[in-house]
Amino acid sequence: MKTTMKWAAAMLLTASGACSAQNLADRDKIAQDKTQLAQYATRVNAACGTHIQFSINYASYNGAVAGPTVRKQSPTEYLMNAGDAIINICVTPAGKAAVAQKIHEVHGAYAEAESESLAGGVFTYKASYAGGSVDHPEKFLKAHL
């Protein structure tokens, strides 16, 4: 519970623009998440033969840190549903080609409900703290690639 609350506090401070007010532990948590995201992006790109950029809107987590929906994972771990969906699509040559042609960036954010969009080469995946599954973004991508 302490870790969850620290993540919540770190995201709240980041989202409010108070990065300079964060303590070292909070800044370290965010830096660790960004490192985890970079490593995960490398894994997705290796599987797909792509150079997809991954990013997270940390500010979107503001105000969503209380009650039964308090985050139990890092933002990157939520975004992994989208990345795993992309990896699953890349198992076929046609899937790899579609991903390479139509996805250049993956953007993750918090939302009350799981949702996806694909526009201008940007695949946006939003998930709540309740989480989601790889099935949702995979189904979306198969219908839109």
What are its keywords?
5 helices; 51% helix; disordered N terminus; 4 strands; four-stranded mixed sheet; 145 residues; alpha/beta; globular
Structure, explained:
Helix 3 crosses helix 5 (135-144). The chain has one domain. Strand 3 (115-119) and strand 4 form a beta hairpin. A 4-stranded mixed sheet has the order 1-2-4-3. The chain has helices at residues 2-15, 24-48, 75-89, 93-102, 135-144, and strands spanning 53-56, 105-110, 115-119, 122-127. By secondary structure, the chain is α/β, with parallel strands linked by helices.
Main β-sheet: number of strands, strand sense, barrel status?
4 strands, mixed
Low-confidence stretches: 1-21
Distance between the termini: 40 Å
Given the C-alpha coordinates, what overall shape results?
globular
The number of domains: 1
What is the succession of H and E elements? HHEHHEEEH
Radius of gyration: 15 Å
Which structural category do the helix and sheet elements fall into? Answer: alpha/beta
- Please give the count of helices: 5
Please provide the count of β strands. 4
Query: Which percent bin holds the helix content?
Result: 40-55%
Kindly report the average pLDDT value. 81
